[in-house]
Amino acid sequence: MKIGIPLETRPGETRVASTPDVVKKLVGKGLEVLIESGAGVRAGYPDSEYEQSGAQLTDRAGAYDVDLLLKVRRPDSADVEAMRAGGIYMGLLESCGEDDVVPAMLTKGLRVLALERMPRTSRAQSMDVLSSQSNLGGYRATLEAATRYGRFFPMMMTSAGSAKPARVVVLGAGVAGLQAIATARRLGADVYAYDVRPETREQILSLGAKPIDLDLGESGAGEGGYAKELSDEAKARQQAALSEELAKAHVIITTALIPCRPAPVLVTEEVVQRMRPGSVIVDLAAISGGNCPLTVADEVVERHGVTIVGLTNYPALVPADASAFYARNLLNLIEIMIASGDSGPELKDLEADEITAAMLMRPAG
Ligand code: NAD
Question: Which of 54, 119, 123, 251 could make a disulfide contact with 168, Cβ separation 3.0–4.6 Å?
Fold first, then answer.
């Protein structure tokens, strides 16, 4: 069974779907690994390390002509063309079914495993790339905020005077938000946090941050651990109730997302106008429209004296570890997909396991 790892070609992408450590484990299971020359270089993994781990270096066409293709970013039509009919695609699709790429893959007879459809169960946790990448994203985004803020995060007492700790507000206390809270706390900031799901209150407290309590008159807890969209009345109540806390913040890190819906607006222009000049907003929801309407995706802008960071790919700024976590997630997934047969590893029935069955894309209708 051949596994292919191509170079990621989306602009700004530095990650790679597998690392030399993981390749060694795959080869140890009797799998043949073909990697496009240079695929790991931007993540700090040279070709020579993959070769030492037992992979074969190949060109682009060779990496695609495989039974199981491992990708990080969403495929484009050239990728689909290069894939072997009947093979398996494993990667993120970054869509909610509104594009032509998945139908083209299905028409070609590919089996498509969408990593964003990973069930949120204990068994699936070690295979969940959304979690591992959000975790890194929350960490890296907090460092982005700290370096762009013109003051200290911690309280500083020096012979030249003292500085108060930064007041940081984290909106959305999911995987990225909790890591942002933890990182800002480690840097010594005074951290406040809010999430629409009530169960996050305990988690916020356990990280040493102060929960912001709002009474919206309805719960934002949705299915499968995700949030659901609030009614228009509750959205308006939420914005108004948050505005006092947000206007006092020196740094706001926003991570609030609802799957396949526009990100909720939590930081209004009026709040930005009231923030102290030199404050920073890091909007991790920029790719879904932003939690602040002034955010510009993939740009850093200044509005009303406030720096608003709209970067959309924080894991790519920590590519060695992001790739290592991603690769281990995929290894854990591959391990439940194969069995050792008489003539080497054999693919199990993907419909028979609840995890792979949930991830398999099916034709619409
Ligand atoms: P996400 O990226 O979809 O959303 C980020 C956060 O934004 C969520 O906590 C959500 O509640 C919050 N949010 C949405 N709308 C909001 C609003 N209007 N105001 C404030 N906050 C809002 O979520 P995520 O980080 O991927 O995960 C959410 C939960 O799922 C977490 O509790 C996480 O622990 C859990 N999870 C479990 C597993 C597993 O068990 N395998 C895997 C991943 C995540």
Answer: 251
- Ligand 1 pocket, CB under 6 A: 120-121, 124-125, 128, 130-131, 134, 171-177, 194-197, 220, 225-227, 230, 255-259, 264, 266
Q: Ligand 1 pocket check: which of 121, 126, 130, 197 to mutate, most ligand atoms within 8 Å of Cβ?
A: 197
What is the reported pLDDT for 218?
A: 84
SS3 345: strand
Same-domain check for residues 169 and 111: no
Q: Give the whole-angstrom CA distance, residue 99 versus residue 46.
A: 34
pTM: 0.95
Considering the domain boundaries, does residue 330 fall inside one? yes
The string of pLDDT tens digits covering residues 19-38 is: 999 999 999 999 999 999 99
Residues 344 and 301 in one domain: no
Same domain, 66 and 80: yes
Mean pLDDT of the chain: 95
- 167 and 290 together in one domain: yes
pLDDT of residue 365: 67
The whole-angstrom separation of Cα 133 and Cα 179 is 11
Least confident of 41-50, 235-244, 277-286: 235-244
Active-site option among 18, 131, 134, 238: 131
Number of domains making up the chain: 2
| Beta carbons of 14 and 319 less than 8 angstroms apart | yes
131: annotated active-site residue:
yes
- Given the residues 99, 120, 162, 206, the one annotated as active site: 120
Q: Counting Cβ atoms within 10 Å, is residue 77 exposed (0-12), middle (13-18) or buried (19+)?
A: exposed
Which range of residues forms the domain containing residue 357? 2-117+319-361
Q: Are residues 183 and 204 in the same domain?
A: yes
Q: For residue 123, tell me if it sits in a domain.
A: no
